[in-house]
Structures are given as C-alpha cells and as structure tokens.
Amino acid sequence: MYAESGGPLIRSARSLPPWLVPAYAQRRAVERGALAATIFLQDYDQRLLVPLTEESAPQPATGGVAVEGSVAGRAYSSMRPVEAAEDGGRRLLLPLLDGGDRLGVLDVHLRSDAASDVEGWEEFASAVAALIVSKQAHTDVYFRARRRQDMTLAAEMQWQLLPPLSVYDPRLALSGVVEPAYAVGGDAFDYAINHMTGNIAVFDAMGHGLDAAVMAAVAVSAYRHGRRLGAPVTDLYTLIDTEFARQFGGEKFVTALFGALDLPSGRLTMVNAGHPAPLHIRDRRVIGEITGATTLPIGLSGDAPEVISADLEPGDRLLFYTDGVVEARRGDRAYGDARLASDIEHVLNDELPVPEVTRRLNLRLTAWRGGLPDDDATLVLLEWRGRHLPLP
C-alpha cells in the first residue's frame, strides 16, 4: 500500500488550484489503496453535508447528505471516524477538522479485505482539511459548495466577520452558531485564546439587515482592535463605545458582553452592556445566571462599567446567547429562559462534543419555533476544561 504522510501531501499541492483539491484527494486516496474518496463540506446551517466537486457554478449547491440519520453525519457529529460495511467493500467516514472547527467529512471507499489503517487515514484526512483551509481564503469554490440557498448581503458580511465557529484548546473549548444562517444581520461573536486568557464577546445590533450588519462590523472590529492592544474588559467598553458613537452619532446601539477567562484559575471577569446574562452550567445542569451591574449598550455613552466576576470549576460551561433566542415565538408563546435551560440540559446529557451541543441546541430551538426567526439568534457555548496546559 502506498503511504504518504500529511506533510508531503500538502507540500506537493502548494500550487494546486483550489477547485482541483477533490480530484487530488481522490487520486492520493487511490494511491493509498482506496477505491474512491469524496469530500463533503458542511452547509452554512449545519444540516447537510454537501459534496465538493470540481465545479464552481455560482448557483446554490445541489445534492448532499443529511447530517441527521446518516453514517457521514455520525462522523461529523461525533468528530470521530466511523466505519460502515457496504456491498463489495466498506466505507471509512472521517471528520475534516481544523483544530476544533468542523469543515465536513471525507468519505473513503475501501475493499472489504483492505487493511484497517484508521490512524493512517485520519492523518490523510487531516492533510485534506489543511489543504481546504489553506486555499479557501483565495477562492469562492468552497463558499459556493457550502451554500444551499442564496445568501443576503448582510449575511455575507456577517460570515466574513465571524471567526471559525469552534475552537479547541487543552484548557478551553468554545463553539457558536448563528441563525438564520443565510440571512443573519446584526448578531456576531468573537473570541481569542492568548497565553493565559480566553477572551469572548457576543454582540447584538439593533434592527435587521444591512444596517445591523454594518453596526455589528464596527463593534466587532473595534473590539478586536482594543483586545489586541491588551485592553482589560473594563476599558473595552469605553474604547468601543467611543468609536461606535463617532460613526453613528448616538442614534444607534449594539448590546454586548465581553468576558475574559483566566485559564490557569478559572476566574471569569465580564462586562455586560445591556445583554442577556450567560447561563452557568455545572455537571450538565444550569445552576444559574452570571449576573451583576450592567451599563448601557454600545453607542449610548453609558457609565464606566463594573466588572462581574465568577469562579469556574473544571468542566463548567457558560452559555452565551442573544435575545433572539429567548424571544423566539410560536404563536403567542415565547421560547423563554426556562425552555432554553431545559433544552441545554437535555442536549448535554448526550455527552456530545461542544460543537455538536450548540448545533443540536439550535436544532431544538428551530424545531420548536418552526420557520425562520423574526430576529437573529446566536448561541455560544464555552467549556473550561481545567487548569493545566500539557506540553506538546
């Protein structure tokens, strides 16, 4: 059997056009002993796995495999390889991961008598994922492949503004989801892991559509600017509010929440600018909200904020969300805080990876609501995994 580690595979594809990655992966997989290999990427609302082909048509992609109820979906959801028998052979489904961020699944078809080399194929899948990540910034092919419907201009802006939906660190795991995926406007979140600190922020701009997307873009960019200057959470509010007011003159606003988690100790410091308080989860149960003094939303020149503090224990989780979650309606009923707490506890009982928890929680919300939301809805789950950073 031909063997090639991830490094040579990536080096030999440095000048490969992005749309030829599927053919390249197929050829290399066959050289390793496979009958065929197909790349599937997640669509924007994480309900389908869409095949990546050499085509780059601007129309929304067609075809795909549902995440729910499929073998490929099991690999995607569990973030683990899954084997399945089929006529004349077997399939190995491997999650395509960029750290903790899920890109999709690699579907490898093997002969029934092929040697079991799951670890080797995992390395191959990691190289394929690295190729996709390295090339997606300078092509539209992968973006088109992931789209199941047309996307609004506001949503286009928001998706370019967002960081990868998930990140994994030995001490911190975080994952978010935004709805409606193809029409989101004013909701956004951001994060960074810097040495001993995990930073997170969630934003909800007033209104809808393009105006809200522009406000969110200014707020997030100002947040990143201040965070990269090393400003503490108390100063971030003033820095962002000043820049935002300069652009919008005090007539528009964005609610926000800025948090900084000390990774060695689990000490959380947070500033709340008119935003819903996050849920504090321990042992898969909601033990309360992390509340404290709040200030006015960004853009309204509120007072200097007071710091809200909390001490986490290893394994604790925080659920951040925008008001479009709890204010979602079905008829004359609102989704509400109690149902959100009940649903997150239900999903956590399945002991899923953090990205799958947020995806399934969002599925429960959308199933309860039915149809598209009246307002953007964002969920971000943070898990503090412990104090120690193991050396590589």
Fold and architecture overview:
The longest helix is centred in the middle third of the chain and has 20 residues. The protein folds into 2 domains: about 140 residues, Beta-Lactamase (2-Layer Sandwich), CATH 3.30.450; about 230 residues, PPM-type phosphatase domain (Phosphatase 2c, domain 1). Strands 3-2-1-6-5-4 form a 6-stranded antiparallel sheet, sandwiched between helices. The protein contains 11 helices and 20 strands. With about 400 residues, it is an alpha+beta fold. The protein starts with 5 loop residues before the first helix and ends in an 8-residue tail after the last strand. A hairpin with a 2-residue loop joins strand 18 and strand 19. It is about 35% helix and about 30% strand.
CA-CA gap between termini: 30 Å
Give the overall shape, derived from the CA principal axes.
globular
Strand order of the largest sheet: 3-2-1-6-5-4
Output mean pLDDT.
Answer: 91
Query: What's the domain count?
Result: 2
Number of strands: 20
Residues in helices, as a percent range: 25-40%
CATH superfamily placement of the largest domain: PPM-type phosphatase domain
Low-confidence stretches: none
Tell me the radius of gyration. Answer: 22 Å
Number of helices: 11
Could you say what the CATH topology of the largest domain is called?
Answer: Phosphatase 2c, domain 1
> Can you identify the CATH class of the largest domain?
Alpha Beta
Classify the secondary structure makeup into a structural class: alpha+beta
Q: The biggest beta sheet, please?
A: 6 strands, antiparallel
Q: Return the CATH architecture of the largest domain.
A: 4-Layer Sandwich
Portion in beta strands: 25-35%
